[in-house]
């Protein structure tokens, strides 16, 4: 299956992506994770992306498009993929369509996680991540077994630099202006699967699973 997961910052894209890739055996491609990995390794790409990310703004389309198009050409992607955090602008969506068409492929579904705006700040500001394995937690909604430590490897959890209340508000504004037009873009293609993302993590996944198992 070739999938995209859409939704505002903190909607639960990364959280749901972990279950989707396990259940549907597809490769998880998160542009946010690719940038954070590059920042950690202090690469040229990381240096370029960091200033945009810290401000809550989008990395320029031409930078992101090239990375994703290259990634889609790798062998492991043949079994199917879940794009998380890409596309984020209509320009990126058009570039994705063109790249897939050139490979004789097309998207199967676009999962759109719908969450009330007032939940987003609480979810992002309370998020904690493991710098070693990348697992995501939440201080209230999804706490680790031992406070502040990753369940998998005991590593001390950290807060993302862009998860401050001020930056999250900027990111939500950027989403509304630049990314939300993609909802109509994919609706027009008959690909959109709207999912209520306000319930518990397992409930949201159940809606995604049953939606994906239905024929379009
Ligand atoms: P990116 O990493 O993609 O961040 P985002 O889209 O802002 O999304 P988040 O990772 O904040 O949220 P999420 O929806 O994955 O939520 P999560 O599952 O963690 O992008 C970061 C930056 O990179 C961008 O600002 C931009 O600068 C740059 N970038 C990336 N891609 C780009 C692109 N294509 N073009 C240009 N620039 C790009 O959940 C959040 C929290 O809520 C967690 O703590 C979780 O435990 C909790 N939670 C999740 N689900 C539930 C639930 N159902 N109930 C209760 N709590 C929940
Ligand atoms: Zn860990």
UniProtKB/TrEMBL annotation:
Major subcellular site: cytoplasm
Protein location: Cytoplasm
Gene Ontology CC: cytoplasm
This protein's pathway: Purine metabolism; AMP biosynthesis via salvage pathway; AMP from ADP: step 1/1
Ligase found in the keyword field: no
GO terms, biological process: AMP salvage
GO MF term set: AMP kinase activity; ATP binding; zinc ion binding
Its EC number(s): 2.7.4.3
Region (NMP): 30-59
Domain of life: Bacteria
Annotated ranges, domain Adenylate kinase active site lid: 127-162
Keyword Cell membrane attached: no
InterPro entries named among the record's database cross-references: Adenyl_kin_sub, Adenylat/UMP-CMP_kin, Adenylat_kinase_CS, Adenylate_kinase_lid-dom, P-loop_NTPase
PANTHER family for the chain: NUCLEOTIDE KINASE
Annotated domain remarks: Consists of three domains, a large central CORE domain and two small peripheral domains, NMPbind and LID, which undergo movements during catalysis. The LID domain closes over the site of phosphoryl transfer upon ATP binding. Assembling and dissambling the active center during each catalytic cycle provides an effective means to prevent ATP hydrolysis. Some bacteria have evolved a zinc-coordinating structure that stabilizes the LID domain.
Function per UniProt: Catalyzes the reversible transfer of the terminal phosphate group between ATP and AMP. Plays an important role in cellular energy homeostasis and in adenine nucleotide metabolism.
Family: Belongs to the adenylate kinase family.
Official protein name in the record: Adenylate kinase
The organism of origin for this protein: Aedoeadaptatus ivorii
